[in-house]
């Protein structure tokens, strides 16, 4: 019997329905250590050229031990695609609709960040469903450096 490969059946995890998702499920991203190269690349993409992000002397004059990684770069560590969450959604995904974030501690080059998304609410919205996740980013010292929420809209009927 010959094996027939179908790329449309290639999934990292089985896709689930809205009804199969559970409050309390946690989706973690691999840890990543930030480097000066990451900060420089983000500075180029964001056009945020404030010296607090790259000038050691400037940062120290204003009370920082080192240049501060862009807050939006830290927020990017909560991207759902860095976890298996969107793979669980599969074809029922409609939109990433909302996010919030609180920046709680400075991040510097050399810090290793650990992000997670936890499902905290599953709410029907008409003929669709809304998933709310609590998002967190911790550093290598266990300090919570960012907390917030994401909301996603999903189809409830496949």
Automatic annotation (TrEMBL):
Gene3D superfamilies: Hotdog Thioesterase (3.10.129.10). Residues 23-137 form the MaoC-like domain. It comes from the Bacteria. This is Acyl dehydratase. It comes from Paraburkholderia bryophila.
């Amino acid at each position: 019997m010959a094996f027939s490969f179908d790329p449309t059946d290639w999934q990292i995890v089985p896709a689930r329905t809205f009804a199969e998702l559970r409050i309390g499920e946690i989706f973690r991203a691999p840890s990543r250590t930030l480097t000066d190269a990451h900060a420089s690349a983000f500075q180029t993409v964001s056009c945020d050229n404030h010296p607090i992000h790259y000038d050691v002397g400037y940062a120290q004059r204003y009370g920082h031990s080192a240049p501060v990684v862009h807050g939006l770069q830290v927020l990017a560590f909560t991207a759902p695609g860095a976890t298996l969450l969107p793979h669980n959604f599969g074809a029922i995904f409609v939109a990433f609709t909302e996010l919030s974030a609180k920046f709680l501690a400075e991040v510097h080059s050399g810090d290793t960040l650990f992000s997670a998304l936890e499902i905290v609410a599953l709410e029907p919205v008409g003929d669709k469903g809304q998933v709310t996740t609590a998002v967190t980013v911790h550093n290598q010292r266990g300090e919570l450096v960012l907390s917030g929420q994401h909301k996603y809209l999903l189809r409830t009927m496949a």
